[in-house]
Each structure stands twice: as structure tokens, then as C-alpha cells.
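Aim 2, interim progress. The first record below pairs a target sequence with its C-alpha cells.
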Amino acid sequence: MRQSLQHTFMGRLAAFGVSVAVLWALFFVVGPRVVAHLPALQHYGEVQDIYGIRSGQLYYTDVEMSQQAEINSRSTWRFTPTGPASGASGATGTAD
């Protein structure tokens, strides 16, 4: 039984190593090649460089543009016009 547990541990360790190798290859080999062949992704990267945006920060509020966008979005929903209040007199333009 001891041998089967050790074999399982070695199998798991090997699977972990293969997983790390696959992820490394995707991030550092495949990813840059895909970006190099797609003009839209190249433009996206250039825009990030121009505005000094690091995409990882967008999930937090460390980027001023992200903060302003959040404020504008909240204000849009908070101050959305709802029309005339119900029961308001003079809304139709007729005299009482």
C-alpha cells in the first residue's frame, strides 16, 4: 500500500509539472505569437501604452479612467430621468 501512495504522489507531481509547462507555453510562447499576428490586439496594446493603462489595475480602482467611468456609470443610473411625477398639476398645460 505504501508503494501505491508514493506512485500516486509522483503521478500527481508529474501532472502538476505538465500543467505548469503547458501554462508557461501558452503565456510565453503561444500568446505573444497570437498578438504578433492580430492587428486588433497590437492596436489594443498600443492604446494601453499611450494612456499608461495596465489592464490588471482595471479590476481595481487604481486607474483614474476606471474611477471616472464608474462614477459616470453610477450617475447615469442614479439620475436617470423618470418623467413627470404622478399627480402633478399643470403637466398637460391646461389651467385649473
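The second target in this work package is listed in the same format:
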Amino acid sequence: MTPFLPSARAPPTSTCPPVTLSRFSHLAFAVVDPPTTAPAQVVRDALVGEGVTLVHPDDTPNSHYFEHEAFVTVAIKDYSLEHWNRERIVSSAGPYANPYSADPVCVQGVDFSIVILTVKAKGVADIPFEEYFKNHCGVGSLARLEIVDVKLL
């Protein structure tokens, strides 16, 4: 299945205001079967008269949706220095929330005491108290998460 929508997850380096995704509920996905490496031409051909079946995103077998209900700012304590760069800091939130922004002081290499990360989450209950990291040397580390601020959407 090839979606024709940009990803709902904001890029890690952007700071986006909260938006209501309901305005996109009228859009559908094109399912190209059999799969092809260049689906655009197949979809164009189908749209000019070869027959097309539109499927609402909620009706697809792999759909999942959850409403972001809060911006949660977390302080990540004991963050592993091996992972201390913007990409890894932001992607560390992936298992429990969508990253929104990382505090610039934390990613510029000025202060290595704590990571401040803002995420969009379904709720405060989705934020774990601990986060495990596999370090490059094979030894794991444990970081503690503390909720600093919550703004309900």
C-alpha cells in the first residue's frame, strides 16, 4: 500500500503547532496490487479509466490511529553519552510518543547533564519512567524519565 499523504509524524528538527488531523479524513489510499517500484504511473493509469477502488484509511487492514492529547516535556536523566546527538535523542521517544522538539542546549554539546525533550503523546500515562539503551560496546544503560510539563491539546 502506498500512502499519498505526508507522514503524520513531524520531522525531528521541526517545531509544528498542534493541528487537527480530522481535516484529512476525506482522503484515501491507493493500493497497488501487485506491488511495483514505481506506483505513481500505475495509479495515474487507474485514475484515467481503468477502474479504481478507493479505501478510507480507517478501513485498511494496517490502519492505526490514536489522538494526541498532550504535549509532554520530559527530562531524561542519565542519558548515555554514546547516543548524545539530535537524531538519537529525538528517536528515543519513538516507542512511546511522537517527538516534537529537543531543547537546543541539550543537542549543541554545551550541557550533558540532562536531556529535555517535548513529545506529543496520547496521554501522560504513555510516558515511561525508564528507558533502556543498547550502547555501542554492547553494554546497556538505563535512563530515568521525569515529566516536567504537560499541555493538554
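The CA atoms of residues 128 and 145 lie 7 Å apart. This observation will shape the mutagenesis plan for the next reporting period.
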